[in-house]
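Posting this for the archive.
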Amino acid sequence: MKKALITGASSGIGFEYAKHLNQNGWSLDLISHSEERSKKAREFFQNNNNNYFHFDLSKKDSILELLEKVDCPDLVVANAGITMMSKAGESTSLQRDELYYLLCGGVIDLIEGLVPRLKEKDASRIVIISSIGAVTPMPKSSLYASAKSAIYSYGRSVGEELADENVSVTISLPGYVKTNAHKRAGLDHLEKKIPFWMWVSAEKVVRTTEKASRAGKSTVIPGIAYKLVRPFLGMKITSKVWKMLNKRI
């Protein structure tokens, strides 16, 4: 039985990924910060082959303890994260440190800790959930975008390095995803402010990402709208449109 380790597994993309793999016979190591949401996930799956862990992955000690407790999986889904909007100069040092470790530093520590064991397998996969914000300016979300950009760059580089080691790395770059993450961040108004065509479902993200990972693709952008605009991201006209949208937020 194949085993997957999924961070941020009790809601959003992580939970949908767990559902998808569970339906296909995988055993799961599910990591969540919230014990309440983790309990709901346990009740949903009712699978004795799954393991459930509660860690705050914005803390280095949590990653180190997690690495000690889990067996090496066949698939790593580095998904845990939060959404944060903050104007330049308005975040605290603690907010920045925790955000960067959760979205980037901790992901690197987790992967680096598992790579020696992943190499020993006949074949293994790593999926990193980054963001379309990694490849386009995001006013009022510069901290979030820069952390996602950093882990995107790491994923692409380590993927090239591990290509001959039977370890594939796929980085997913979703845009606005319909999850509870925005609500928990106090940004639930975004669903009314952001145009409907910019939203993609968590199920769509998972199906697209897993298909790309199985195919050995290094990067995937879920959602037709985002695929169409990808060549224009970073251009002045695109940045102007993004600023216009952010004025509505």
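The domain at 3-247 is CATH 3.40.50.720 (Rossmann fold). The first strand starts at residue 3 and ends at 7.
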